Amino acid sequence: MLKGNLRGKDFITTQEWDYDELESVLDLASEIKKEPGKFSSELQGKSLIMLFFNPSTRTRLSFEIGMTQLGGHSVHMDAEKAWIGKGSESIKDTASVMAKYADGISIRIFPNITDWQYGKSNEVVREFAKWAEIPVINMECDMFHPCQALADILTIKEKKGNLSGKKFVLSWVYHPRPLPVSVPNSALLIATRFGLDVTLLHPKGFELDEQIMEWARSNCESNGGSLEVTQSMDEAYRDADVVYVKAWGSLKHYGKFEEEKKFRVDFRDWICNEELMELTNKDSIFMHCLPIRRNVEATDGVVDGAHSVVYDEAENRLHVQKAVLSLIM
Amino acid sequence: MLKGNLRGKDFITTQEWDYDELESVLDLASEIKKEPGKFSSELQGKSLIMLFFNPSTRTRLSFEIGMTQLGGHSVHMDAEKAWIGKGSESIKDTASVMAKYADGISIRIFPNITDWQYGKSNEVVREFAKWAEIPVINMECDMFHPCQALADILTIKEKKGNLSGKKFVLSWVYHPRPLPVSVPNSALLIATRFGLDVTLLHPKGFELDEQIMEWARSNCESNGGSLEVTQSMDEAYRDADVVYVKAWGSLKHYGKFEEEKKFRVDFRDWICNEELMELTNKDSIFMHCLPIRRNVEATDGVVDGAHSVVYDEAENRLHVQKAVLSLIM
Amino acid sequence: MLKGNLRGKDFITTQEWDYDELESVLDLASEIKKEPGKFSSELQGKSLIMLFFNPSTRTRLSFEIGMTQLGGHSVHMDAEKAWIGKGSESIKDTASVMAKYADGISIRIFPNITDWQYGKSNEVVREFAKWAEIPVINMECDMFHPCQALADILTIKEKKGNLSGKKFVLSWVYHPRPLPVSVPNSALLIATRFGLDVTLLHPKGFELDEQIMEWARSNCESNGGSLEVTQSMDEAYRDADVVYVKAWGSLKHYGKFEEEKKFRVDFRDWICNEELMELTNKDSIFMHCLPIRRNVEATDGVVDGAHSVVYDEAENRLHVQKAVLSLIM
């Protein structure tokens, strides 16, 4: 069934995998979702080291339980500042030894670990991948959250079928803290990769990384979708098929929390509510990667409403990750 | 063998399970204890999420190893203040997603997590149970410790056989810290449920929750036992068949530590010692849920003496929990 | 194949195991390394409780993954100061209960946990072993690191074949912190046990425990090796077959960090570099237990150089531990 041999491949961003490879993962994820029992010995005796520089619920649970359901085992390591600061063991040594014991490494590392220097956390993931002779999976760095992206696109395919001509809105919303851009980056990349007509909605000052935007535009060219950027909520939500809501911090004030707060606070009314959802297509879906701050990012009415597919989306994390693990480990 | 189908049922307090259901668990626990190997694939591929808002040794070990021995897996999560305070993810969202990944959730949450407002920790457990479409097990909240209760009654049945007419003393003892009432509550409920003649011994001011007392009295009526309350150690210990020792805090001064300390310190001599045990029946048993502060709650002579069954009692945690997990997951 | 029945035996120091028993472990480790799949059900359904009073990477990963590869399960417990200070549960109670649930206990405990009183951490391990009716494995205390010793000697045998007449240098090197002596103690004991000609190299003031030295000398007598102590780097490195580099603290200033620092800082130039390695035999091997502080303990040139076997040595931790676990549990 698989269109390519993915054994040993790192998964750091969807952007570095071929379209066919991504399709393979999604096909396998759907099969695993339908008949989980068929895959219960897939990773028998295999071990995944999960490095959490930052704590996590959903990611940790879905990876750990996913490994179990495939017959394997995962080791949960609280990594905090280990392997990064002065006086630490080199990542070369750590990764080389890990590769002697385990069959895969997955890493969660947020911008705070690398002093809010955009791209630095991603470099740590890549440093592990460079030295480890086993595949490395990005469980979210400061740039990418590729497993979330896969869960997102699987959910959209399940709910919307053919994606061509469907309107996907990626909407910035307010949050009291400046969250990483990994999720919007990844959502933008995957949506343009799968040919959706994307509208990126955010206030001025919350532009995404220009490199990501470039990739997104090039994705559109290759895959037949489109990309528009707007500051108009009405325009964005109108006739949308998919509303993807996410809070993120301003890259212009990255890591300068007080300065950012003053800037951000003007946009407190950027919340996804029932009125905005009224503008969308009748059968549109509301997505959020969770955790969501209710009645700040979106109202209870939206989160618990008929459009919402947030729990299905969260569930799909399990299935896509099991697919990725099965294919690369 | 099972007298009812318990699949999917929450286990928050023994009081909410029928007598027959509790008997089913105890029967199965005995069978598992005798032939553990027979049950080694019982929960193959199934996962239990263990949420520890407070750390634990015995509970964590017995649940985690129990799951392993049944062929399943448990995820150990340090939950601390997560999912409770302001700005946290809603319990609805957390529990709903957990139910997408796992087959059960078990929760340990002490009164300190919910600001020493009696009953509030129990509400958190019930909130998880409300939203999770998978069974929830109480690993001890501020009101109940039902798994301890099952281990206790199994131990008593093993050692004493027919429980009718047996004298069970639940004895308050001193401890420098005001401990939760979950264990005495649960011991009282299970002992009255199984028809023991219960003597509750404590100094004035350490009364248990009136709702629990009411349930206990009603248990006696239905099950043929009796309940007496006394402040006289001599009277309580005399002719006892089972001595169950436990320290707990005064509900009247709940959460007011300095005030409580002044009050509690007068009862420093409330310790279970060899002289008191001399008053009991020759073949009486000494029980404690552990951990015990030796020579404060009970003397070494008692804990290590001939009456003591504390390690058997601790062992039975494993067997009853395996039975519960097998039946509900 | 096994020369003795090791079931149930504690593993606290290699010194307390017979030579034949150690050989059994090494033979089994080699077999496991060659055909890991043959042993995938060896510990089916068995559980190891790993108590970490101090955090760990290599040890934790190799034990946890080792248990998994043998079909068993390990429980990772952060123990910190639990079971040691005032007001804690007695080790008797803890160990007795653990023995009711699990099939083995492994313990990591550094000198800081027992106030830098040399030998006290080892006593904690022995206290657990005294009360637990299941085998206890020392994952490094303040005196011994027996699993490291086994990995070391396996690596040496793999690389050097017949050990008779081979020159083994145990070289002190500088490190900004006073590290435990468990690794040099254990390396000295295992090297003399297996008949190597040992040269112990360190500055004056960094002598090892006299009891260890006595055991080492007695090992030489029984096993045909030799032991010399020198302060001359040149003399030590010349014609060496094995260079084993390790930083350790001065027992004379044990736990007095400021005092030790003043003393230690004079020896900052004690680093293993390419020039020193030039003095060794052409096919000599460079060993270090890791983590290593690069360019402080040894230069990058050495750690990444042709002599270095540090990753093989780390890998062998997995294999020897799987052998020990298989034999005693």
Give a verbal description of the structure.
Three copies of one chain form a homotrimer. The first copy, chain A, is of the alpha/beta class and 329 residues long. The first copy, chain A, has twelve helices and nine strands. A five-stranded parallel β-sheet of chain A has the order 7-6-5-8-9. The A-B interface holds A 37, 40, 57-58, 60-62, 64-65, 68-69, 71, 76, 176, 290-294, 303, 310-311, 314-315, 318 and B 44-45, 47, 49, 73, 75-77, 82, 87-90, 93-94, 96-98, 100-102.
Please describe the structure with a list of short key phrases separated by commas or semicolons.
globular, 9 strands, alpha/beta, 329 residues, Rossmann fold, homotrimer, 12 helices, four-stranded parallel beta sheet
Topology:
The structure is a homotrimer of 329-residue chains.
Chain A: H1 19-34, E1 47-52, H2 58-69, E2 73-78, H3 91-101, E3 104-108, H4 120-131, E4 136-138, H5 146-160, E5 167-172, H6 182-193, E6 197-201, H7 210-223, E7 226-230, H8 233-237, E8 242-246, H9 257-264, H10 274-278, E9 285-287, H11 300-303, H12 310-328
Parallel strand pairs in A: 1-2, 1-3, 3-4, 5-6, 5-8, 6-7, 8-9
